Amino acid sequence: xxxxxxxxxxxxxxxxxxxxxxxxxxxxxxxxxxxxxxxxxxxxxxxxxxxxxxxxxxxxxxxxxxxxxxxxxxxxxxxxxxxxxxxxxxxxxxxxxxxxxxxxxxxxxxxxxxxxxxxxxxxxxxxxxxxxxxxxxxxxxxxxxxxxxxxxxxxxxxxxxxxxxxxxxxxxxxxxxxxxxxx
Length: 183
Ligand code: AMP
Known about the structure:
The protein is α/β, with parallel strands linked by helices and 183 residues long. Helices cover 44% and strands 17% of the residues. It has helices spanning 18-33, 46-57, 89-98, 110-124, 142-153, 160-163, 171-182, and strands at residues 5-9, 37-40, 62-67, 82-86, 102-105, 132-135, 165-168. A seven-stranded parallel sheet has the order 4-3-2-1-5-6-7, sandwiched between helices. Helix 2 links the parallel strand 2 (37-40) and strand 3 (62-67). Helix 1 (18-33) packs parallel to helix 2 (46-57). It starts with a strand and ends with a helix. The structure holds adenosine monophosphate (AMP). Adenosine monophosphate binds next to helix 3 and helix 4.
């Protein structure tokens, strides 16, 4: 059976709180310790670099996908177990999701949200059945939870939209949610 792979979406920056980097490091480590593979955007900047270095340091496999035009800006991390260069952002997102069994989103910006919403909307359309988990470091994703509830409350999505997103307040919680969903 192929190795269980977790796609992590997260900031190309590290954000203002040290807890963001701490949790990114803990998640990268936990993925390796579990014997899982990290799938991510192959950058060596921000939380992306932090999570990847943590998985590597703990002896885990890494699978990164980056488009040509971001090789310089996001510092393409060529020492990953698998390093893939795509022509477009769309290909990058597709290759990342195709090669993962589950998705986790750490704190991040508009790029992370773009990736998250594609995974969520594709799940809503029945195009995949992969678990989607938010690592809610220091309540960072509170406004996103509020937005999703607001969308359902106003009749723009079925209540099932909320069931597609699981939320963990710590790396331990996220790992427990993933284990349950993937067992
Ligand atoms: P951010 O959360 O904005 O720091 O971005 C995190 C990652 O998402 C980075 O690797 C960005 O290159 C990527 N990203 C930014 N915009 C998009 C987009 N429109 N589609 C896919 N990925 C994106």
